[in-house]
Amino acid sequence: DEELVVLGIETSCDDTAAAVVRSNGEILSQVVSSQADLLVRYGGVAPKMAEEAHSLVIDQVVQEALDKAKLTEEDLSAVAVTIGPGLSLCLRVGVRKARKLAGAYALPIIGVHHMEAHALVARLFQSDLQFPFMAFLISGGHNLLVLARDLGHYIQLGTTIDDAIGEAYDKTAKWLGLDMRKSGGPAVEELAREGSHETAQRLQFLLCSDAAIHVAEASEEDRKARADIAASFQRVAVLHLEEKCERAIEWAMEIEPSVKHLVVSGGVASNQYVRSRLNKIIEKKGLQLVCPPPSLCTDNGAMIAWAGIEHFRMGRYDPPPPACEPEDAV
Ligand code: KG4
Ligand code: ZN
Q1: When comparing pLDDT for 161 and 301, which is higher?
Q2: How many angstroms separate the CA atoms of 190 and 184, rounded?
Q3: Which of 175, 176, 298 to mutate to test the pocket of ligand 1 (most atoms within 8 A of CB)?
Q4: What are the pLDDT digits (tens) for 223-234?
Q5: Alpha carbons 240 and 276: distance in angstroms, whole number
Q6: What residue ranges do the domains of the chain occupy?
Q7: Which atom of ligand 1 is nearest to the CA of 300?
Q8: What cofactors does this protein use (predicted)?
């Protein structure tokens, strides 16, 4: 197995990220440029604005990833890039950059599915994690429960029908008037530590984040009341996750009794409360939790590079694009 060095590029949402990863699992560099300032100013991701922000920093982010890895383009084996799901205007910035680079240096290119990368990164973090395993992906865009039978073979056990949990956290943070510079989730988690979730029962009758919005309006000034709301929201939201998780495990065990691990990944997986609650369910069911560190759970380039490596090893990649492709070809 020849040693590979792959550059991963991620621009599907509001972070511009690049990383260089070796096939032995070594992360040589990781760079993330966040648009959090824009998010605060406009209260959400505006696609056109996000595209411009990606375009402004993409060259610099990729260069920094190469510099930190002490490599040049010529040392790379391939370029991996997120091709979806995500905002198409934003995805295009990453794909264009990847194709330009791959064209100029005659590198193969690997198109990566963002959610698959969130799941596979668990095998970068824990190298002895074998298929089949379950994955619970909880992020800003999607909640997804899958049974990963093999690379590229996934059975979907559950998915979001309305807001993904990260979005519910973000909305709650916004309505509680919290500092969103680090994105809403961590802010709610922090405030929730000061509160109790006795009001959870009241919230349960309404839908999580919407309920938090109503109660928040009534208690703008009172930090303790807001902390209680944060704690209650978190309690109710995570209870939903626990129920879904438990049911999915039972289902998965019927399909694939040899499953031993459940991966929890995606931005919301960096939440300590979420981790510990899900861990209880997972242990009760006789499985082991695999939860990568926050830097690999939130959107990052290393997970894209790693998913690229896994596919490249199986021969799944595209040949280098033409060296002088017109800019509007993508
Ligand atoms: O995976 P991710 O970085 O991007 C998507 O693919 O969506 O997830 C971002 C989401 C955001 O909604 C953010 O608020 C949430 O993950 N998040 C958290 C925490 N850290 C990030 N939610 C709750 N608690 C956290 N500590
Ligand atoms: Zn993500």
Answers
A1: 301
A2: 10
A3: 298
A4: 888 898 899 999
A5: 14
A6: 5-118+298-329
A7: 3
A8: a divalent metal cation
